[in-house]
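Suppose a classmate hands you a notebook page containing two proteins, each written out with its sequence and a corresponding row of structure tokens. How would you begin to make sense of it? This section walks through that situation. The first entry is reproduced here exactly as it would appear on such a page.
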Amino acid sequence: MGNANISNVTIRPEEADFFAKLARDWWNPKGPMASLHQVNPVRLAFLREAIDAHWPGAAREARPLAGKSALDIGCGAGLLCEPLARLGAAVTGVDASAENVSVAAAHAEGMGLDIRYMAGEVAGLDIGTFDLVTCVEVIEHVADKAAFLKNVAARLAPGGLLVMSTPNRTAASRVLLVGAAEAVGYVPKGTHHWDDFITPEELEALLAEVGLTVTARRGIAWRPGKGLHLSDDMALNYILSARAG
């Protein structure tokens, strides 16, 4: 874990404990983390578009991340790490919850995937830099977002690619992501705290402060008959890519 002077910028202990309690059910597509399984293909579609746009020639490759390193910050039980490994990356997953990391490592082993998992805060781990850094549904659980993003940017190698997703702070997200989603059991109660959500404009400004430029931004929306999909509508959730410079 990080030392005392960075503890206030990372995942709040109560947030880590909350998700740790769900660790054993993380890979159950019909369990309490079912919403993550449903949104994962949408995130991966954006991620593949971002990879293809960032690295020349990647679009022609089945394993476009071969020879590249990837870091997933707040990896949970590895729902994003495993697809990254299948795209060819040497993957490291970091999570504040040791329980999550344990579940992730066991699942990866069962899938025959060589993924390095580490428990702790990214700021307190000596892990170097990476060609690709992903951080999905994490920053809304962080107290000091500016300091957190400074640590995220420090993990990005020159010419690297960052992909982040997070809920937007809108009237719609307050009603649907916090109120309705918890009421019907779509996400476990206590998953979201609306006041901690960040708008795309706020996030883009904070990324600029740490030397990163947003290159693409899409909404993750839902509608009957289509389900979750990439959209220009960012009222509920959005995903973006950024590069250094």
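The notebook's second entry, a different protein, reads as follows.
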Amino acid sequence: MSAERGLVERLRAYFGIGYAGTDEVEHRLTELKRSKTVSRLFWLVGVALFGYLFSFTLGQVGFSIAELVKYWPAFREALGEFVPTTTYNGVPFVDFGAYWQFITVEQPKNGSTFVDAAITTFSIGFAGTVLGIPGALLFGVLGSERVTPFPFNFIFRGTMSTIRSIPALVWALIYIPLGGLSPFTATLAIGTDTVGNLGRLFTDALEEVEDGPIEAIESTGANRVQTIVFGMLSQVFTPFIAWTMYILEINVRIAVTMGLIGAGGLGSILQTQQGLFAYTNMMATIIVIFLLVVSVEMVSQRTRSYLRGDTEDRGIVRHLMDLVRGFPERMSESLGR
């Protein structure tokens, strides 16, 4: 009772209610207790729904500890092939020579080298990004309510949303009649995907521009196009470049996954070696993929840091460590696109 009395006193002091208003304080105290009870009930219902959904999805995919235990010996054996070991003076080391031996030989499928495959993968990502920039800029600008009045701007927003809802891998399958599964159709797919993703980022950036420069351009008698170019786009020129570099990082990773369905590049080598259960060769290919993606990300992030005016130089080694730690998450993100 003393705790409740103390709470009543604090409520009375907070709301400025004298002792004559005890009924009102008690009413508000009752409302406070009721709101806490409702909040706890909502939390319990939310946790129960989350638990049910999690259990249901595990059942749908057939996930179980028993499956892990059943196949663990086979996975452990494969893991030994992924990371072959050798000894130097009786001390075990990872046998990088096994990786290098596979990397330096020509691939029998098309006679290309790993360098050729890496260049193809990068070319798919880079060319697809550049091809998508004009469409992204057009739809991004027209999708902004500052440029196209409501509700007509949602025509362009809806188009970008439709493009984003279809993963780049599916776009590659849609473009098969144009040239089969090849670097050409993979580049088209990434270009299409870029229109949706980069265009939406452009739209969001335009929604945040300041009104002052726009009004200043309009006061000079500029027409609509001049107002958009010099009053709006000039404010977001730097963010546009930064977002484009970020999308390039993603697209290079997507280009790797394109190869997994036969579109060429490093992904095709990885898919071939997986079919042969050559786990050592798979790991060698993954190492090359890792080096390519991290190299692109280092250039991209350095460029974006320069555009932001970031004068803090953390050093190449520390920057590389940050990229290494975040690589799995970024790779899984690109696989889901």
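A careful reader of the second entry would note: The CA atoms of residues 167 and 337 lie 5 Å apart.
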